[in-house]
């Protein structure tokens, strides 16, 4: 096979895109559990959204930072919590991408006992911006048997602006 | 150091292989929990195998899709479940690869309570095909103290056709 | 955009570094649960450290292998256990890197019942050596509400020798 600088650069760009998307999502859990709402909100675009189905929806970086800085999350942090994510299945479509995967919040119950407090499905929609890939929408729904949660995990829907 | 198009292309190919293998495995959980047996079975080769030690063994895409479309899995989905995987340790050997890692099935018990229902070891064997990397064998065993499960996690065995 | 061999090689190197770091960390869980202390200790540098805050600190490969070969870990393995890690948020800084993320130890209680036995925060510090990236320090702290654990997850501290 003959290679050109252009063809190699294109293949490299695809890997860099996947790496950037995975990195944005991998930062979520550590930032949530260190309580850094400001840095966490920078994973989203200016007017990005975080929708926790049946619980809360936040639009814009201020509102997203607010979820982390609010009383609920602070109380969880003080008890002890871990926002663990699984690997994400990424679909790239030019400057848009979707990433689907699980998240589990472990909660410390005291005396070194933990429970799986929330087990959820996630569909992240990301967009390439001048400053890099950012989240434009994250939908999260409890995997408690509801169809909505299962739908977030199906790849039949191509990346699109929600 | 001097670089040639050929040496860069070779390094790029290795990264693309790792990315493809990770991507195949990252799709498993979301496809299992969205109930899409047909799409899930496409992660395997035509006559690929999925062996759940002491529980079931499925050979071929039809049989693998059947695990997801069968009554056991459908009942679990209706209650609420999450097939969470950990990161995989990948060994590449030309057109064969192995990937070792953990999987956890969380089950919804009702009222937003979850349990870690199965905690297992996995050894995936993958092969490069014309259409890309596909699973030829996945072995899964419960980490309940049995030696079989621990053996799946040891890298002392090079990638090979099971 | 014009590309040069040099610029492509540099971009490739960055991806290879991230891949190598992720791979080192992805090997930890499978090696711990297969009980291979010797191979596990090779993920660290000669005099690398593994600090489990409030529990144990091991310096050097012999001591790190000893954690896996000691009575505590062997007893856990015989009961059944899984060292599951989450994705890591990596910061590269030349020949140093940090990686932050969660780890969960599941313990088999008998009869196929499991508990989340330890849920912890981790900050890995890695260094590029002639033989590749290796861990020079891993700090692990239980996410039981203590500030120490949350601090391990904050990216405000650049990669540095602990």
Please render the helix and strand layout as text:
The structure is a homotrimer of 162-residue chains.
Chain A: H1 5-34, H2 37-41, E1 44-52, E2 56-59, H3 61-69, H4 71-79, E3 81-85, E4 89-93, E5 96-110, E6 113-129, E7 132-142, H5 147-152
Parallel strand pairs in A: 1-7
Antiparallel strand pairs in A: 1-2, 3-5, 4-5, 5-6, 6-7
Give a description of the structure.
3 copies of one chain form a homotrimer. The first copy, chain A, is of the alpha+beta class and 162 residues long. The first copy, chain A, is built from 5 helices and 7 strands, in the order ααββααβββββα. In chain A, strands 1, 2, 3, 4, 5, 6 and 7 form a 7-stranded mixed β-sheet that branches. In chain A, a hairpin with a 2-residue loop joins strand 5 and strand 6 (113-129). Chain A is globular and about 60 Å long. The A-B interface holds A 1, 3-5, 8, 11-12, 15, 18, 86-90, 100-102, 104, 115-121, 142-146, 149-151, 153-156 and B 5-6, 8-9, 12, 15-16, 19, 22-23, 25-27, 29-31, 33-36, 39, 77-87, 106, 108, 112-116.
């Amino acid at each position: 096979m003959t290679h050109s600088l252009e063809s190699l650069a294109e293949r490299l760009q695809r890997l860099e895109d996947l790496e950037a998307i995975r990195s944005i999502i991998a930062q979520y859990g550590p930032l949530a559990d260190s309580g850094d709402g400001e840095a966490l909100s920078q994973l989203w675009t200016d007017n990005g959204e975080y929708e926790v189905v049946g619980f809360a929806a936040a639009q814009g970086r201020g509102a997203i930072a607010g979820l982390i800085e609010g009383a609920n999350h602070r109380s969880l942090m003080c008890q002890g919590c871990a926002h663990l994510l699984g690997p994400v299945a990424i679909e790239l479509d030019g400057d848009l991408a979707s990433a689907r995967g699980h998240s589990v919040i472990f909660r410390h119950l005291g005396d070194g006992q933990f429970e799986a407090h929330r087990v959820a499905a996630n569909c992240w929609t990301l967009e390439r911006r001048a400053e890099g890939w950012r989240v434009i929408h994250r939908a999260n729904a409890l995997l408690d048997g509801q169809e909505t949660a299962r739908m977030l995990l199906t790849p039949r829907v191509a990346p699109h602006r929600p």
